Amino acid sequence: MSTQVTPQSYYGPSFAALLDSDPQIAELLVSELDRQRAGIQLIASENQTTPAVLAALGSTLSNKYAEGYPDRRYYGGCVEVDKVEKLAIERAKSLFGAEHANVQPHSGASANQAVYGAFAAPGDTILGMSLDHGGHLTHGFKVSFSGKWFNAVHYGVAKETEDIDYDQVRDLAKEHRPKLIIAGGSAIPRKIDFAAFRQIADEVGAIFWVDAAHFIGLVAGQAIPSPVPHADVVSFTTHKVLRGPRGGAIVCKAEHAAKIDRAVFPMMQGGPLMHGVAAKAVNFAECATTAYQDYARSVIANAQALAAGLGERGIRPITGGTDTHLSLHDLQGVAVTGADAEKRCDAAGIVLNKNAIPFDPEKPNIASGIRVGTPSVTTQGMGTEQMERIADLIHRAVTTTDGDPEHETARSLRAEVTELLGAYPAYPTP
Ligand code: DSN
After folding, report:
1. 258, 287, 316: which is the final residue of a domain?
2. In what order do the strands lie in the sheet with 316-317?
3. Do you find a cis peptide bond into 229, omega within 30 degrees of 0?
4. Cβ of 373 below 6 Å from ligand 1
5. Separation in Å, CA 75 to CA 69, 72, 264, 266
6. Which of 129, 136, 353 for mutating ligand 1's site (highest number of atoms within 8 Å of CB)?
7. Tens-place pLDDT, residues 127-186
8. 347: CB partners within 8 A, 6+ apart
9. Considering its fold, how many domains does the chain have in total?
10. Does ligand 1 lie within 6 Å of residue 186's CB atom?
11. What is the CATH classification number for the domain harbouring 416?
């Protein structure tokens, strides 16, 4: 068992019961908290949610079956969970200025399944960003249900700008007349021109869907423009920059509300995870504060500082920088693959992921790039000065170590990481 103080406040009052009944799993929970505390966490899709959200997740709401929607359930005893879900819905609508919200999707992929269920039938054509240019599996990638069940057509980025090629989007939309046009993805560093997408969708009579999973937290914090006024439907996850529980949600225009609700339940899901819905409600309230808005702005400032710091050291940011919480970097200038960089950083106490870059000469499991994001380090209170230091640590890890944790430089880099994290701890012990 870890020598650190038992993190009761993060795992809730039931942690003592777990420790008693299943010490093996209890120990792993603590080891994972230790792991999250011990490294610099730069996975762009991760964050460190609050003790309040963790408390809601670890609650007896997990016991309740509540198929249906508030006041329209298929089970008795839903009086309290009805109140919880109504609060979550109202808070989501208010936070995003949305006409309708569905807070039941179990995950981002579940939310996306429901959007397909609402607006498309198997065999229909969809238009999304290709995965190797920054899109997402569920936007029609060949091994995903979305690529198997729909006729998926993909746009990408322009070679010169490395940003979305809107002319290509229009040309493909006119040629293929998709039912759905999808904006969003997992590795897009720049703001998306939602008005341009809306215009193209209108030109071809398509539904315009934004998968805002990555950047919805920046929208909630009013740090970047919102897709909500432009899109028919916006799906998202609640655990990235947003910093809520692992889960999904959908907001949409009122005219699509019934379709979306029917597609989430009963088409794609059964009973909602009411402990997750409660945690989403807690999170939406947290995001409506000026403190969260300050956080969202700092996430971007930090991402820009980190991207610039890496760029100055020969690790080129795709598109030249970022407007969001993440940047994507080309390692070809330092002659290291993404897979090697990920391993070398890991050995140095820095957690990030290899990532394909547009027009990547390497296979996806090797890749020529890395993706870095600042949601977690910003939650820990770090600022642009620390990003400069992290850029230096990454550069040294990538260019002077070999992935062996016992390598002398890896050991000294880990000592520097520990020193930096000492001033900005994750989940500081109360
Ligand atoms: N896996 C997520 C990410 O890392 O971007 C997207 O689903």
Report:
1. 287
2. 316-317, 326-330, 369-373, 353-355
3. no
4. no
5. 11, 9, 18, 14
6. 136
7. 999 999 999 999 999 999 999 999 999 999 999 999 999 999 999 999 999 999 999 999
8. 397, 401, 403, 404, 405, 407, 410, 414
9. 2
10. yes
11. 3.90.1150.10
CA distance 265 to 267: 5
**CA of residue 1 to ligand 1 center, whole Å:** 31
Contact 67, 75 (CB under 8 A): yes
Contacts of 384 (CB under 8 A, 6+ apart): 301, 302, 305
| Catalytic one of 67, 82, 362, 388 | 67
203 occurs within a structural domain: yes
Q: For residue 281, report the distance from its CA to the centre of ligand 1, in Å.
A: 22
Query: Does residue 41 sit within a domain?
Result: no
Closest by alpha carbon to 43, among 373, 388, 421, 370? 373
CA of 407 to the centre of ligand 1 (A): 31
Kindly state whether residues 277 and 310 are assigned to the same domain.
no
pLDDT (tens digit, 9 = 90+) per residue, 368-386?
A: 999 999 999 999 999 999 9
Structure tokens at 101: 């919200």
Look at residue 340 and tell me if it is in a domain. yes
Q: What is the mean pLDDT of residues 74-103?
A: 98
Residues with Cβ < 8 Å from 146, sequence gap 6 or more?
112, 116, 126, 137, 138, 139, 140, 152
> In this structure, is residue 127 part of a structural domain?
yes
The counts of H helices and E strands in the chain are 17, 15
* Active site (annotated) includes residue 343: no
**Same structural domain, 281 and 375:** no
Cα separation, 292 vs 219, in Å, equals 11
- Do 217 and 108 share a structural domain? yes
Strand ranges for 239-314 from DSSP E: 248-252
CATH number of the domain where residue 162 is located = 3.40.640.10
- pTM score over 0.90: yes
Query: Is the Cβ–Cβ distance between 251 and 213 less than 8 Å?
Result: no
421 alpha-carbon distance from chain centroid: 23
What tokens appear for 339 in the block?
């897979």
Length of the chain: 430
Domain that holds residue 400: 298-423
